[in-house]
Amino acid sequence: MRSFLTALGISIGIAAVVLLTSIGEGLHLYVMNEFSQFGTNIIKIQPGTTTTHGSNIASLSSVRPLSLDDAKALEKLPGIVAVDPVIQGNAEVETNQRQRRTTVYGVGPKFPIVFDINPSGGSFLPKDNQVSPRPYVVLGAKVRDELFGDQNPLGKRVRVGGQRFRVVGVMESKGQILGVDLDDAVYISTARAMDLFNRQGLMEINIKYRESASVDEVMASLKRTLIAKHGNEDFTIVTQEQMLEVLSSVLNILTFAVDALGGISLFVGAIGVFTIMTIAVNERVSEIGLLRALGAKKSQILFVFLGEAMVLASIGGFAGLIIGAGGTHILGLLFTALPVHTPWTFVVIAEAIAILIGLVAGVLPASRAAKLDPVDALRTE
């Protein structure tokens, strides 16, 4: 029973570490994959600077907001594949029978190129007059289902924020990406969105550059062009790689915090091993005395108790790995939306930690057992 309880304490600690780390690692991979599925060669330009405003709330109010002319000028720079000026808002989308409040994206015709999203039916917004584009709209997959059901929406008219638009396409289903449902949205031209939401400037400009191009050179040319047009650097340029680095660092901190919780369980298990081994030494004093009287060396007594602690810890660690991996698999089956991932390298490290815990926790009790005087030990009973 004593050996079982010792192994159980370690197994619970290892299982907690494996389970929590699997959730943390899975969440890390999920978020990074979601965030990078549009590619890593994207640059975002926002009005305002983080150094003067503290954050990009300047997108709501700026001395010199980003304009459609800015976006058009950036298209001509070397290394640029596509430029997409963006406005975002919320409005009612109505047909004659149904209506739905949804997200409205004001985008340019290069939006599918920048974000690698294509229409499943019809076409995307055509290249049109920048100032007064035609009133065309492209529906997200969910909006299309809610408003038209099984009917073909192409060519039909809808009202977006009270203005009439003709449906020219339906986007392929993308689902939710970091909590943003791209299917529950409609896409109209940027100029129309600026008029709809009474905005004088863009919220951001998204740029896709050639993968072979140097990101530093591209950023430098973007900065030079905008400074020449604005007179000063009243904008913020952020690359996809920078956003991924920041996001990764935040997720690493989260994973570390989760691992620390599991580490507390391991620490409790180590105390359990130390306590049980101390009790074992106290209960087996006469046995130690007999072994010493028969000629056992101090080193042999030391290795007997150290070996016992390490074997119990390794057995408990192995059981903990099975419990943790099994729990991770069950979580993945019960909650399919919860990403879980257990790296095999971590499994090996976890078992090594369990053995190390047994070694460290068994040193003092084993050393005390080895130092017992054989005569005094034999007199214990």
| Low-confidence segments | 51-62
Anisotropy-based shape: elongated
Number of helices: 12
Oligomer status: single chain
Helix/strand structural class:
alpha+beta
Major beta-sheet overview: 6 strands, mixed, barrel
pLDDT average, as an integer?
A: 80
Alpha carbon gyration radius = 32 Å
**Helical amount:** 40-55%
Distance between the termini: 22 Å
Order of helices and strands: HEHHEEHEEHEEEEEHEHEHHHHH
- Strand residue content: 15-25%
How many strands appear in the DSSP assignment?
12
Record the strand order, biggest sheet. 2-3-10-5-7-6
Kindly give the count of domains. Answer: 2
Describe what you observe in this structure.
The chain has 381 residues and is an alpha+beta fold. The protein has 2 domains: 2-35 and 245-378, no CATH class; 64-233, no CATH class. The protein has 12 helices and 12 strands. The chain has helices spanning 2-36, 50-53, 68-75, 111-115, 141-148, 190-196, 215-230, 240-283, 285-293, 298-334, 344-370, 374-378, and strands at 42-47, 80-94, 99-107, 119-122, 136-139, 157-160, 163-171, 176-177, 180-181, 185-189, 204-209, 235-239. The chain has a 6-stranded mixed β-barrel. It has a two-stranded antiparallel ribbon with strand order 8-9. A hairpin with a 2-residue loop joins strand 8 (176-177) and strand 9 (180-181). The two termini are 22 Å apart. The relative contact order is 0.19. Residues 51-62 have low confidence and may be disordered.
